[in-house]
Amino acid sequence: MDAEQIALAVIGGTGLYRLAGLDAVETHQPPTKYGALSGPVRLGTLAGRRVAFLARHGEGHSVPPHLVNYRANLAALQALGARRVLALNTVGGIGARFGPRVLACPDQLIDYTWGRVSTFCEEPGSEVLHVDFGDPYTPALRAEILAAAHAAGVAMVDGGCYAATQGPRLETRAEIARLRRDGCDLVGMTGMPEAGLARELGLEYACVAIVANWAAGCGDEEEITFQQVLDNVAAASTALPALLDALLARP
Ligand code: HPA
């Protein structure tokens, strides 16, 4: 395999355990010095280009957000030849433009997670990096995604601030009210440390957030159910093949 030929690595979130349309798949689960990946990396062809897919929570959704081995996942994708990572993140919507089934390409994030291994700079003797993170998502890749969405006729909100919470429980209404006051539009549990680690590795990295529900207190629901989350992710994900085709058609 020519590692350089991987055009895009896709990391799937809750409700996204396989990538529709990925053909001629080989699986790789390389050991890494950071430990085991969430599951196999599926490498195949999509729109005529080499694409890698990894389910962040494992293909049977067995890895909770705080236990995802973000370092191993990203290091393995890079070792297999990925340079660009499209992170698909299932989220709750806070801002009015971010209702269920919306796709959004956030441009900012706030990290509320704690106790996660959030850097590669912990190896004895490793150089401590203070990477620039003012724009946590690679602007050029965001622009490519938004242009692809436009070309494919896929509605996508441009921008928004992603709040990364610890989970695995959902938030209280008061916590969401605080996130809103902080300027957050979307809330999910896996955006960090993944984005920061990708930056440390020098990967291009951007997020397409799939809104599965109104965050606590933002809609009319008394309760957010996992079935509602899965149903809305499944409905919103029908746009992904066209989006990916258009993205991969770009040189
Ligand atoms: N909060 C946090 N993460 C989520 C949510 C939410 O409401 N919905 C899907 N992932």
From TrEMBL:
<dbReference type="GO" id="GO:0019509">
    <property type="term" value="P:L-methionine salvage from methylthioadenosine"/>
</dbReference>
<feature type="site" description="Important for substrate specificity">
    <location>
        <position position="171"/>
    </location>
</feature>
<comment type="function">
    <text>Purine nucleoside phosphorylase which is highly specific for 6-oxopurine nucleosides. Cleaves guanosine or inosine to respective bases and sugar-1-phosphate molecules. Involved in purine salvage.</text>
</comment>
<dbReference type="InterPro" id="IPR035994">
    <property type="entry name" value="Nucleoside_phosphorylase_sf"/>
</dbReference>
<feature type="binding site">
    <location>
        <begin position="213"/>
        <end position="215"/>
    </location>
    <ligand>
        <name>substrate</name>
    </ligand>
</feature>
<dbReference type="Pfam" id="PF01048">
    <property type="entry name" value="PNP_UDP_1"/>
</dbReference>
<feature type="domain" description="Nucleoside phosphorylase">
    <location>
        <begin position="8"/>
        <end position="248"/>
    </location>
</feature>
<feature type="binding site">
    <location>
        <position position="189"/>
    </location>
    <ligand>
        <name>substrate</name>
    </ligand>
</feature>
<feature type="binding site">
    <location>
        <begin position="56"/>
        <end position="57"/>
    </location>
    <ligand>
        <name>phosphate</name>
    </ligand>
</feature>
<keyword id="KW-0660">Purine salvage</keyword>
<dbReference type="InterPro" id="IPR018099">
    <property type="entry name" value="Purine_phosphorylase-2_CS"/>
</dbReference>
<dbReference type="InterPro" id="IPR000845">
    <property type="entry name" value="Nucleoside_phosphorylase_d"/>
</dbReference>
<dbReference type="GO" id="GO:0006166">
    <property type="term" value="P:purine ribonucleoside salvage"/>
</dbReference>
<feature type="binding site">
    <location>
        <position position="190"/>
    </location>
    <ligand>
        <name>phosphate</name>
    </ligand>
</feature>
<protein>
    <recommendedName>
        <fullName>Probable 6-oxopurine nucleoside phosphorylase</fullName>
        <ecNumber>2.4.2.1</ecNumber>
    </recommendedName>
</protein>
<comment type="similarity">
    <text>Belongs to the PNP/MTAP phosphorylase family. MTAP subfamily.</text>
</comment>
<dbReference type="GO" id="GO:0005829">
    <property type="term" value="C:cytosol"/>
</dbReference>
<feature type="binding site">
    <location>
        <position position="14"/>
    </location>
    <ligand>
        <name>phosphate</name>
    </ligand>
</feature>
<dbReference type="GO" id="GO:0017061">
    <property type="term" value="F:S-methyl-5-thioadenosine phosphorylase activity"/>
</dbReference>
<feature type="site" description="Important for substrate specificity">
    <location>
        <position position="226"/>
    </location>
</feature>
<comment type="pathway">
    <text>Purine metabolism; purine nucleoside salvage.</text>
</comment>
<comment type="subunit">
    <text>Homohexamer. Dimer of a homotrimer.</text>
</comment>
<dbReference type="InterPro" id="IPR010044">
    <property type="entry name" value="MTAP"/>
</dbReference>
<keyword id="KW-0808">Transferase</keyword>
<keyword id="KW-0328">Glycosyltransferase</keyword>
